[in-house]
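Dear Dr. H.,

I hope your travels went smoothly. While you were away I took the liberty of generating a structure for the chain from your last submission, since the lab meeting agenda had it listed for discussion. I wanted you to have the full record in hand beforehand rather than looking at slides cold. The sequence, exactly as received, is reproduced here:
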Amino acid sequence: MKTLHLWLIPAVLVASLSACVTINIYFPAAAAEKAADRIIDEVWQLKQQQGETKTEPGENGK
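The corresponding predicted structure, in token form, is as follows:
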């Protein structure tokens, strides 16, 4: 039982330290900016399409 404790404590420490490791992935700035612009354009197109399908109050003569 005592040998289990001798191996358990370092194993828990190693496992907890390895859980704190982060992986950083660096994207080229130009590619990230291009992707952001594309997403913004898609969102604006969706908003414009939704605006075209809705009728504004007063357009129907009411």
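Two observations you may find useful: The first helix runs from residue 2 to 19. The helical segments are 2-19, 29-53.

With kind regards,
E. W.
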